[in-house]
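Protein 1 of 2
SEQ + STRUCT:
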Amino acid sequence: MTGLRAAVLAALCVLAGGASAQDIMLRSRDGGIEITGDLLGFDGEFYRMMTRFGELTVDASGVLCDGVGCPSLTDFVAEMRVSGSSSIGSVLMPALLEAFAQRDGLTATRETSGADRFTYVLRDPEKDRIVGRFDFRVGSTDAGFAELLADEADVVMALREIRPEERRAAQAGGLGDLTDHNRSRVLALDALIPVVSPGNPVNSLSLSDLAAMLSGKLTNWQALGGPDAPVVLHLRGEDSGLTQSIEDRLLRPSQLTLGGEIVRHDSNAALAAAVTNDPFGLGLASASEPGNSKALYLSGSCGFHLRGQRAAIKTEDYPLTAPMFLYMPARRLPALAREFLTFTRSAPAQIVIRRAGFVDQSPEELPLSQQGDRLANAVSVADGPEGLAGLKRMVGVLSPMRRLTTSFRFEPGSVRLDAQSRSNVQQLARSLELGEYDGRRLMFVGFSDGQGPASSNLDIASKRAQAVRLAVEAAAEAADLSRIDIATEAFGEAMPMACDDTVWGRQVNRRVEVWLR
């Protein structure tokens, strides 16, 4: 009876389940308490029901269920509905689900029910019964969030961060704050690569030029040393997460909107193929599917030069890195679904992600000698003797150390970490809990943009490094931090990742890196 009271008092607001409402009665095993109501859902461990006391969640282990609507405790089939980006849902999620099933000795059979719908049926061959159904609807990020708000999806696959209006609607609908660390996670990384036809003589462009071309303000290739011909933009559909990410991250900070001649495409492969065959085309292709198009360097008036290579994407040094998100509401999923989501962060899952053509989340260590583009950019913008002295100090401190491919950045105009960085906090905290860096020195290193006095920038960078350190330590609740030498350092504006002549460039430069020895 005590267990039932505790379960009732700890009732959650919502819980996953697909059963229609049916009358049931839950009775404590000693017969002391009975609760009657409509069954709203069952996840194999907990009942969710509507009663005269409101919506309650009750632990199945402490009660007996009576009524025609009572589910089977022994033959329960876990269900999870996944909706959103086709870039994630077409290849990556199926590959991860098949690997998860193989690891657990299950068989995974794919059943197609439409052009954009399919179901994976997971079966336990030893017990000869179905244990799970994972329903997928692949389309757009917009559609994923819409289905979540309509209670037609349990997990959203997104190629952009949730927007403020979607966040407010989810909270109003009882789904919780989807920006919380346990409500969202980064599954893998992609990137937006400016691409042109192989015959186009242009080899690089700045972020400012790219923004001008996307907004229709720069319409002729001649301005970039190319032919006297109009620029034809090739983009994914308006509801594509990649397209919306361009608008949110590159255009909106400069108060620009998409414009000019735009050709839309239904898939990344179709976009890359169209640009390859269009001598005057410019596309923003997925790094996982550039096809035979020619990738352009990103340059800037300050002299920086970056390529969309794997290492630069993984460290988020490449300015157009595109995280691939999973968003989950504040309701309990079946145990099998939770186990799958946990698997997506495991070491075997990172191998699957790499094989699928995306950039994984497994931390790597890079020596200072592999920071060529970054150091070259830093030298080119070092301002006088003071700037060179700061650069020399940075090289002296970091030379014996290795950089971890985990970076932290902040939301525009805020001290709050952005969505990618909040996920990175949890990832690094888990590594500390597992003792992966015991006996080593771990340094949080802060950097800033170049606006304002160098001394003020150094102070701001130091405070950012301290803030990230505290966030990671707070998240690593089970870690023995006495086994790790944790420190902070700051170098201010010493090593910019982008030019400070754009809002976006300044935002990229405000970051915290992690270095190890």
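Protein 2 of 2
SEQ + STRUCT:
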Amino acid sequence: MKKDIKLKGQLKLYMQWPGIMILFLILMNIWIFRMDRKAGLLMSAFVLVYAVVIGIMYFYNKSLILADMVEFAAQYGIVQNTLLKELSIPYAILLDDGKIIWTNTQFREVLGTTIRKDTYLSKYIPELNRGVFPKEENESVSLEFNYLDRDYQAEIQCVSVEGFSETEQLLEIPEEKEYFIAIHLQDVTELNRYIRANEEQRLVAGLVYIDNYEEVMESVEEVRQSLLVALIDRKINQYIADFSGIVKKLEKDKYFVVIKKESFNRMEKDRFSLLDEVKGVSIGNQIPVTLSIGLGLSTDTYAAGYNYARIAIDLALARGGDQVVVKNNKGISYYGGKREQTAKNTRVKARVKAEALREFITGKERVIVMGHKMADVDSFGAAIGIYRAASAMKKKVNIVLNDISVTLRPLYEAFTDDPKYPDDLFVTSHEAEELADDNAMVVVVDTNKPKMTECERLLRLTKTIAVLDHHRQSDEVIENAVLSYIEPYASSACEMVAEVLQYIGDDLRLNSMEANSMYAGILVDTNNFMSRTGVRTFEAAAYLRRCGADVTYVRKLLRDDMASYRAKAAVISSAEVYRDVFAIARGEHLGIESPTIIGAQASNELLNIEEIKASFVLTEYNGKIYISARSIDEINVQIIMERLGGGGHINTAGAQFPYSDMERAIETLKKTIDIMIEEGDI
């Protein structure tokens, strides 16, 4: 049995060295013997004695060495096991399904309870379940969790034990699962506390603007104006002081504020009540005061934070004011914005934008006009208005139009059948890309989102881009526009273009069909002048009427056929009332060419039902689900649609889902409404 036990490796080589030395001594002995016989005999005797001693030591001590090695291995295993058990880092070994097979003392102390054998770790710590375990060899996963009011960071590693079942006598593991899950924990409670404390001490820069300063001052007696300003100043200063911040008045209607990140978090929970507090200031002013607040949060520098605040305040103003916009490294958040901005009676801005647009058009040879995807009457009418302005300057004009809806077809055919208009007036996206060059200008109407345009690639092919839109801006904008005219208070893009046309040239005049198209755009977007109309809306309509717009003709154009009318009735009949004030209807398998238009019309109709504050119609079209959202005054449907990736106006908005599962879409809409009600946004 002893003969079967052999040494190997470095120890075997070490034990063989005396034998190798004997060979060297024998060779030396032969050499000495040839030189001197007596010296050779004496050397032979020495070599013989050395060989006998080495042989005795090797064969006698071999078993002793093996015994000592076995004892050392046993002692080493005990020491190693003890060190691992008493290791200050909590450590555990699990099977691939999460069952605990070994833990050290520190891990058991973290759990604070006696661990039962053959139990799952997720029973004690739900976050550490098999769903988060790595599946590949030597792959590791890191995650944080809270347990017994302490924060821990877990490092989870997949440790391969290939061949384990062949060598282990007591445990067999399937060949495809020959690995263990090793977990070690690190207590990061103090580290997180210091990180939070450092984060809360960061300074947040902010800009506060009074949206309607001039209008409010004009609505109150002159002797009371200074008192009104003092009350507004006091409200702003008191609110910021309550959050341990400072305020510096820059101009009569502009303020700069600085607060801590911790104070900002409290303001966020307070839902920025300053907006409502300032609205409550009244000493005879007929118009309530509204504020726009832009806050910049940056983890880099204070200069970057201030720059974020400037971007945020510009976005708040572009979206109509009466809201808070917060920009940080991750994105943009919106608060408030529940009130529709009051339309300004002055047309100075429209005149300035018209002059700028004329200069840009003059410098180019071709103008390409495009609206949003699935163009509606407003988008079409606004494009026709820009066509008239550019063609009056002797410029070549093309309108990008890919899909033609049932509602749009009569207007479209009226232009294509008229020989006065060029054959290439309407082009597809591909054709427009071929026409785009350095001498071309792109005018985008009725949208300010790149992804919503008829041809997004066209925005990258030209350097001169102008945007005219009446929808509120979001964080996704056409950034390289040389001219951006966005007025959320306007009822429609056609209203804005009608104002621009009055200043862009003295000899410019629309013909009857062009005026009809723009008038139809205003009519559709205002739901027959019933929503979102102001003084300037009727002035624009009057201008179009003077240009020859035929009200009766437009009404005939916008009539539905019998199939569309029945489809609209089917959508309305499917409506359900959610939370007593929301009407939700669906349009599936309607069998008509443009179901989204029917959805928008049905959404308007549902607002005529008593107690309904907002309506949502979901229609399936081309593998997607489109939402048309409408409200009268109490609910801001725009912020609801923004949560779903869409946008629009306070009273008119929309969104779309990239799938056709109607039940899933309705469930998502309901959850969004529930969450926003709980958060106080609606």
